[in-house]
Every structure is written in structure tokens, then in C-alpha cells.
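[recover] target loaded
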């Protein structure tokens, strides 16, 4: 293989990560069993809810609620080693008078005093409000909506999907614009944080606050990076208003890593320790279920499904953790023989089998695949024929073919792929064979622009735009503007509304409607709305 990276066995990788996660898992178990000693925990002092609150992964009877106690945000250790009791409650009204569920959760020092409450017993398709409190200090009041019953045909589902929110690139104008909508869910498709050192003045017009500057390499610095992002008022407001379903991409750990291998390097214990620290910090700061951290304990499983009755099913994938090293090496390159004939995987064999089973069992009208990397082929023909970016699915063409063949073979109803990563906007027809001009379109892909990454500049348009005519399955491309997609799902169609923002480098930036597409039930491919 062109890559010089050596191979670490799966057994070696899991053995190493198990040693890292085993202590965390034991601490989480204790945190889920608050006892009398918790009630004697010391007073927190300053406002403990500086990082806001969040909800995630709604079901027809429940939700995950999140917060993290951080009275001194730049000092993750400021609360010491005490286990701190945190009261939570869920109500039917914004005034928090009609309480439907309540309890005490433990904020454990082993998890940076984060809290994950998995609420059950709620009513389907209902609006609820929630709040945390610690020793008389109360959090803001958050909102979420549960999913409908399993066999209900929901009249309408509204959601947004986003990606790539590099903090120093600018303000979260897109989230401020999103707050004007009434959404059931927000899908975050990765690059929630970036690992790079933040030097000098950001595009927000100010320097990074003291204590947050270092590149992320260990648990403390990954925690600080999440803390910096969570301090943003617009991001906090979006989390408080909408439940999120989150998956990571590469920058939550390190640029363009593949499984156990960092970019342009071989697997090593040092990198796996860094990755394990990043995964722990991710769990500590996201509204995801404890099952993700506890099974299997050597990893952090984020691939999962979400059902919205018979109307829609979401398959949230992990394109990073389990994939083989890039068959043709990192970066851009000619497609090599290993890509055409090799035994490799993008999702890992276990996740591939899980996805195939979910496809077979789905009874949803719409099947939405949320994932990180460009799935459509993008041949860099202006560079030279057969030239591709290997970090995306183009570097794993046989794995892509297997996935799309599963879509066809399972007769999956109305498949739509939602993608992040590229800092650009695409609307694509997906085909089992992109080289066959007569091949049927089997699914539709929407690639959402970055929230901030790249700032107000033109990072990708001049390079990729000339390539688009050589890829006729790409129906729309725009590489120079930041924003997001809103989506509306009904039994007959899915509508996608692209919203760009005027600026992320000015605090006065606003959002605006760019254009819209519709995918009709029973007809793959997007049409202008």
C-alpha cells in the first residue's frame, strides 16, 4: 500500500483503550447511584451553569438531559474531587409548575462534573421544559419535544443539520438565525470543536480568553476546548431550545485521522491515548446516552438510530472510529489498485452489519442517513483524471458501493444522505456506479455548509467549482458561504431550505434564504422547489 502506516491489531487497540476507559466506566457507575454522601457535598459558590444546558436523542417517551458544572470555566479542576448532587426536573410548562419528572443526578469529578440524565416515562410528541439546580443556583430553562409513537404517521417533522463550527473563524450567526424556527431536532454532523492551537486574534475580533489557547492533546486540553465553544451564547441558546443528535468527525480528535492512525503517521499508543481523551471529553460535553460510553467500554459508540414514528428513521453513523487506514494514502492521490480491489471498510464490519439490519427492518416512509464525509464521487479532473480526495468516501469506493448496494437490496424507502465536513454545499445524486451515465439514482445527498469554518473568505469555491462539470451527478455546488439547512418531512416529500449568513466575522451578521429543493416520495433525486 502507498501508505507507510503500520497496522495495529483490533485486539491491541481495544486492550489499550480498555485500560483508559475502565476507570471512567467505574466512576460513571458510581455517579449513577447517588447516595446520602451526595447530599453532604459542598456549596458550589459561583454560577455553576456557565456552559449552559442541552437535551438530545429524543425517543417517544424520553430524552437525555445534559449540563456540566463549571463555575470557573478555565479551570476544569476548580470543583475538586467532590461528587456534587444536581437536581433536575421536567415540566409541561415553561414556568416549571406542572412537573412531570424529577430527581437527583451526580456530577462526578471523573467526568468533569458533567451530568447526563436519561429521562423516561414521558408522553410522545409533546413539548416539555427542563431545568437543573445546585444548592439554590438554577440553570436556564430548556425545551425539547419527544418523538411520536412508534406506529404513528407524524404529519410533519422539522429539523436542521449543521457541521464545522470552528470558534476562531467567527460568530455562530447560523445558530442565531436558527432560533427563529420551530424545530423538532438538530443534527450535528461533526467538527463540533477543532483541535488546533488558537494563535493571535480570532475572526471574532478578540483574542482567545486566557487559559484556552493550547492545542488539544490530552484530557485537560480537550475539556478546555469544549468549554470555550460551550461558552458561546448563540450555541447555548440553540441547545436550550432544540434537542440535538450529535456525531463527531475528525477535528474533535485530530485532522483526517483514520481509526487508530493519525494523518500521515502510523498508529501508536500516544495517539490512541490522545483519541481516548478526546472521546471522553466529547461524552462529557454532549447530550448522549451513557450506553455510548459503557458498551463497549474500550470505545465510544456513537452510531445509533432515532425513530420518528412511521414517518422517518435516522441512522447516525461513525465514519472515523472503525475505518481502515486510507487504502491509497492520505490527502489527494490517484485511485490505486488497493482502492479498487482491497479488503477495507469505512464504517467497520460491525457497524456495516448493524446498518444492514436496520435497513432491512425499517418501516419508515423516509430513511435519513446522517454521516460525516462526502459520499458522492468528486473526481478532480481539473487536476488529472482518476484523482480523488482520499479522506472522503472517494478513498473507500468499495465500502461506498457496499452501502449503496444495501440501500438497493433492502428496498429502503426514500433514502436521503445528510453530510458535513466539506465547508461547502452540495446537492448530489448517489449511484452505485458513478462512471455509468445511465446508472439509476438510488439516493439523494445534501452536504451542509460550515457554520463558521473558513470565515467570510472563499476557501473552496475557486478550487472545486471547475471540477463540478466533470461530475454530472453533482446538481448544485457552492463553496464560499457559511450557513446550514432546514428540512421539512411529510409523507409525500422532504423539503430542504438552504440558509446562508451574511457574515460570521461581524457580530451583526444575519441569515437569509438562498434556495430550496424537494425530494418527492418514491423518486430519488432533488428537484428545485
Amino acid at each position: 500500500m502507498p501508505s507507510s502506516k503500520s497496522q495495529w491489531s483490533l485486539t491491541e487497540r481495544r486492550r489499550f483503550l480498555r485500560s483508559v476507559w475502565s476507570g471512567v466506566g467505574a466512576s460513571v457507575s458510581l455517579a449513577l447511584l447517588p447516595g446520602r454522601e451526595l447530599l453532604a457535598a459542598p456549596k458550589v459558590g459561583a454560577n455553576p451553569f456557565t456552559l449552559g444546558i442541552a437535551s438530545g436523542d429524543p425517543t417517544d417517551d424520553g430524552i437525555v438531559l445534559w449540563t456540566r458544572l463549571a463555575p470557573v470555566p478555565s479551570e476544569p479542576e476548580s470543583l475538586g474531587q467532590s461528587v456534587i448532587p444536581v437536581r433536575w426536573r421536567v415540566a409541561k410548562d415553561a414556568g416549571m409548575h406542572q412537573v412531570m419528572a424529577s430527581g437527583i443526578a451526580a456530577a462526578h469529578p471523573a467526568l468533569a462534573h458533567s451530568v447526563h440524565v436519561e429521562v423516561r416515562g414521558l408522553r410522545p410528541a409533546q413539548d416539555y421544559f427542563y431545568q437543573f439546580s445546585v444548592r439554590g443556583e438554577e440553570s436556564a430553562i430548556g425545551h425539547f419535544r419527544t418523538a411520536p409513537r412508534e406506529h404513528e404517521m407524524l404529519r410533519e417533522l422539522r429539523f436542521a443539520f449543521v457541521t464545522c463550527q470552528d470558534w476562531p473563524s467567527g460568530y455562530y450567526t447560523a445558530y442565531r438565525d436558527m432560533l427563529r424556527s420551530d424545530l423538532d431536532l438538530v443534527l450535528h454532523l461533526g467538527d463540533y470543536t477543532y483541535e488546533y492551537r488558537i494563535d493571535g486574534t480570532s475572526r471574532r475580533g478578540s483574542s482567545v480568553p486566557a487559559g484556552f489557547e493550547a492545542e488539544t492533546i490530552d484530557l485537560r486540553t480537550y475539556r478546555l476546548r469544549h468549554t470555550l465553544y460551550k461558552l458561546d451564547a448563540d450555541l447555548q441558546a440553540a441547545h436550550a431550545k432544540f434537542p440535538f443528535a450529535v456525531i463527531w468527525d475528525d477535528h474533535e480528535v485530530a485532522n483526517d485521522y483514520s481509526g487508530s492512525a493519525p494523518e500521515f503517521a502510523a498508529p501508536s499508543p500516544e495517539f490512541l491515548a490522545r483519541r481516548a481523551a478526546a472521546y471522553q471529553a466529547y461524552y462529557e460535553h454532549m447530550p448522549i446516552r451513557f450506553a455510548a460510553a459503557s458498551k463497549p467500554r474500550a470505545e465510544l459508540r456513537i452510531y445509533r438510530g432515532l425513530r420518528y414514528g412511521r414517518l422517518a428513521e435516522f441512522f447516525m453513523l461513525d465514519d472515523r472510529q472503525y475505518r481502515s487506514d486510507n487504502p491509497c494514502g492520505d490527502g489527494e492521490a490517484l485511485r490505486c489498485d488497493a482502492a479498487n480491489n482491497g479488503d477495507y471498510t469505512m464504517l467497520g464490519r460491525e457497524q456495516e452489519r448493524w446498518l444492514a439490519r436496520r435497513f432491512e427492518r425499517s418501516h419508515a416512509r423516509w430513511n435519513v442517513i446522517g454521516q460525516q464525509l462526502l459520499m458522492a464521487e468528486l473526481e478532480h479532473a481539473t487536476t488529472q483524471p482518476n484523482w480523488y480526495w482520499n479522506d472522503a468516501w472517494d478513498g473507500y469506493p468499495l465500502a461506498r458501493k457496499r452501502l449503496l448496494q444495501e440501500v438497493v437490496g433492502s428496498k429502503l424507502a426514500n433514502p436521503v444522505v445528510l453530510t458535513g465536513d466539506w465547508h461547502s454545499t452540495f446537492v448530489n445524486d448517489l449511484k452505485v456506479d458513478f462512471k455509468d451515465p445511465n446508472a439509476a439514482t438510488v439516493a439523494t445527498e445534501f452536504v451542509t455548509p460550515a457554520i463558521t469554518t473558513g470565515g467570510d473568505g472563499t476557501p473552496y469555491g475557486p478550487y472545486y467549482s471547475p471540477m463540478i462539470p466533470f461530475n454530472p451527478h453533482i446538481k448544485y455546488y457552492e463553496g464560499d458561504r457559511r450557513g446550514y439547512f432546514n428540512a421539512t418531512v411529510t409523507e409525500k416529500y422532504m423539503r430542504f431550505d438552504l440558509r446562508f449568513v451574511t457574515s460570521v466575522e461581524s457580530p451583526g451578521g444575519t441569515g437569509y434564504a438562498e434556495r430550496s429543493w424537494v425530494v418527492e416520495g418514491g423518486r430519488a433525486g432533488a428537484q428545485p422547489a
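[recover] notes: Residues 1-10, 19-40 have pLDDT under 50 and may be disordered.
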